[in-house]
Design a protein that fits this description.
The structure holds two protein chains of two kinds. Chain A is an all-beta fold. In chain A, about 0% of the residues lie in helices and about 55% in strands. In chain A, the strands form two sheets. In chain A, strands 2, 4, 5, 9, 10 and 11 form a six-stranded mixed beta sheet that branches. Chain A starts with a strand and ends with a strand. By secondary structure, chain B is mainly beta. Classes of the chains: A mainly beta, B mainly beta. At the A-B interface, strand 4, strand 5, strand 9 and strand 10 of A face strand 5 and strand 10 of B.
Amino acid sequence: ILNVEQSPQSLHVQEGDSTNFTCSFPSSNFYALHWYRWETAKSPEALFVMTLNGDEKKKGRISATLNTKEGYSYLYIKGSQPEDSATYLCAYRGNQGGKLIFGQGTELSVKP
Amino acid sequence: DVKVTQSSRYLVKRTGEKVFLECVQDMDHENMFWYRQDPGLGLRLIYFSYDVKMKEKGDIPEGYSVSREKKERFSLILESASTNQTSMYLCASSLGDLTTYEQYFGPGTRLTVT
């Protein structure tokens, strides 16, 4: 059974804090790693799709890194704002089948 | 902007009823997906489709079926609803290669089976 783990499960930070969380996935047969943001009462939205070991992607204050050899990805948020409050999901795809396997998510709450 | 719509935001059904959840996307995407989301479990794939009239089982297909008669529409059917199918159901679509491209999600349908 392929397992995708995210940690921590939840995080409470103050506005202006920088934060990061982890997605762990199988290091063998890697094909792609997705990050999504899911705000309450909205649809999940894609942040990044990463395929190459060592890849680093950035969107505004949010960035992500990928290590396929050891099977982890970090998502960083610099200077958190209340509007960053959401559940952040990662999803792994192996190269034997087209399905995404999602982690259980990290719920971020940013207090003003 | 890609738009994925789902027929209902909230739905309450009785045990044993046949339930239809509809999903429509407006960007000519080849791939469509149905997930359910339960607390602590993340999104789990029920079925997906990579072309009209094509379907593939996901991780938890039992008790569900799907229909894709037109490219833009993907329906999830609960043949005989049960209380353990109470959940949030999310539809998604994507371009081309199944999972290299990002998925676009609908707003979700919260289904309660009593």
